[in-house]
Write a structure and sequence with these properties.
- This is Alpha/beta hydrolase.
- GO terms for molecular function: hydrolase activity.
- It holds the Pfam family Abhydrolase_6.
- Keywords: Hydrolase.
- The chain is of the alpha/beta class.
- The protein is built from twelve helices and eight strands.
- An eight-stranded mixed beta sheet has the order 1-2-4-3-5-6-7-8, with helices on both faces.
Length: about 300
Amino acid sequence: MSRLTHVTSGPYAPPAAARELTVRSADGAPLHVEVHGPDDAPAVVLAHGWTCSTAFWAAQIRELALDHRVVAYDQRGHGRTPASPACSTDALADDLEAVLTATLAPGEQAVIAGHSMGGMTVMAAAARPAFRAHTAAVLLCSTGSSRLVAESTVLPIRPGRTRTRLTGMVLGSRAPLGPVTPPARRILKYATMGPASAPHMVEACAHIVHACPRAVRHAWSHVLDALELDHHLAELRVPVEIVAGTADRLTPPVHARALAAALPDCLGVTELPGIGHMTPVEAPGLVTGKIRALAAAHIHSVPAVEESA
């Protein structure tokens, strides 16, 4: 029964970074950051979701790093970033600003892709100066701005206060997830992935999610339960594309449609039949292609790389 934090072979095994660094957020919290690909290439920044890590983006990193500079970082308490008592959407926005400032040159813009809580990070940072200075376009994958627990269909019962209360208890549970076992894989697949997800996809996601410390999982569940970012959407003024799975039980497509209606410059919503919440893993080629197309369309120049003396 493995306690690996990610798979070590196959398309979802994380590639080695060209370099790693520690970035300090506004409150001094250290963030683990990886940079992949050539320094003089168009930049992409990847923000993962709740209970995940940079390993979640392995398929995107491997393909995009051939001709893009890819920056991926671990959210607070996830992956190799230590836990912090500050768990809030403001902290998420602070962290994204810090990563952008530390990894992009002055005037340089990137495409930012956020999955789930990573998409919420983007929304929270929408009005921040560093975000506006460094963001050319955004891809939002499987995310929402509010009513996450009320709209979740993880529990197959009628919508209403009872389902909302029970869903909050399930998602906010302090119970340890334990090792990755066949029953654990089945539970994770049901809750987070589409019914046709291949076993190697489920395996990759299970190791990543089970590696998240339960205290971190619990702390951030409260932030998601109380999430209210609707008023931030008008500030997200860059071109935004949205991807959602029709079988997503955590952030059903109702969220994607609400985002599209509220965003000032939404390029469209792609709903993927039968795909669940883990869109970058379940539909890796499509998500990678969306990021690549956004970079080609909206990053117009790359600052020259200064040679060291």
